[in-house]
Amino acid sequence: MHRRRFLASTLATSALAMGRPGAAQPAAGGAREFYLIRKYSLVNGPQTKLVESYIADALIPAVTRMGLGPVGAFSLAYGPETPVFVALIPGASVDALAELDLRLAQDAEFMKAAEPFWSAPASAPAFQRVESSLLIAFEGWPKLTPPPASATKAKRIFQLRTYESPSFAAHVRKVEMFNSGEFEIFKIAGFHPVFFGDALVDTRMPKLTYMLSLNGVDELDAKWAAFGSNPDWKKLSSSPRYAYEPIVSSITNLILTPLGASQL
Q1: Across the strands, what pairs with 135?
Q2: pLDDT value at position 30?
């Protein structure tokens, strides 16, 4: 218990130090969620089947029993390297996500289902590497919002975008831009925003990550053109508060397709 309180306190203090007042406090529209993003780097062959089975038969059922979710599970369709699977796990508390593996190891049902993945030998590893990021939802978008197509398993894709900034000051202003009107511009352009998260723990900082959903890749260009031509976007992006210098130094853009077991 003391360890969990210390962890939550430390993350809140870190967020405050980076100029994000109240980053671990409830937002006006409700408590802000936390997100754990896991990227499984694989090689073609047995690893892909093993990890997809692990996510479907062990991970998603276990975290659902813990009261976490809805869980997104995706395959990287377009990005710097494939195959990669991505798991997105939302939670109401930071400790539930930070201690996820410890809790999973205490779940007998999970351990039984996860055994081929969990205990894969060095001669036949289950994955190449697993990368994890811990994020907190933006104040203006405090909860993950599944697209309507998720309920019916209709055709859909997801765009996962990450923005790195050249300084913490620039990062704070970029987050502020989203909270100052970008959410509505995305919706007007025809996107379905899923989540927006500010990185608390990651190997590359400062950064933010957000996810959009749409019906297919063929819609991407038209919807981004609509976003870029929106008068509100032009006004916001040209504001001296945000256009005084580049406040985004690097963008990572991934196109994901949902795995069969995905709850998103």
Answers
A1: 35, 199
A2: 67
Contacts of 108 (CB under 8 A, 6+ apart): none
Q: Residue 25: what pLDDT?
A: 37
Q: Report d(CA 136, CA 203) in Å as an integer.
A: 16
Query: What is the full DSSP assignment across 211-259?
Result: EEEES-GGGHHHHHHHHHH-HHHHHHHTSHHHHSS----EEEEEEEEE-
At residue 244, the pLDDT reads 87
CA torsion 69→160→189→175, rounded to 10°? 90
Provide the residue ranges of all domains of the chain, joining segments of one domain with +.
Answer: 2-258
Asked if residue 7 has pLDDT above 80, the reply is no
Which residues in 125-149 are b (16+ Cβ under 10 Å) and which e?
Answer: ebbeeeebbbbbbbbbbbebebbeb
Q: Are strands 34-41 and 207-214 parallel, antiparallel or unpaired?
A: unpaired
Q: What is the rounded CA–CA span in Å between residue 181 and residue 184?
A: 6
| Per-residue pLDDT at 6 exceeds 70 | no
Q: What is the DSSP letter of 142?
A: -
CA distance 214 to 192: 6
**Strand partners for 27:** 30
Average pLDDT, the chain: 90
Q: Are 113 and 57 in contact (CB under 8 A)?
A: yes
Q: Is 153 left (phi over 0), alpha (psi -120 to 50) or beta?
A: left
User: What angle in degrees, to the nearest 10, is found between the helix axes of 46-54 and 108-118?
Assistant: 170
Going by CATH, does the domain composed of 2-258 fall within 3.40.50.720?
A: no
Q: For residue 27, what pLDDT is reported?
A: 37
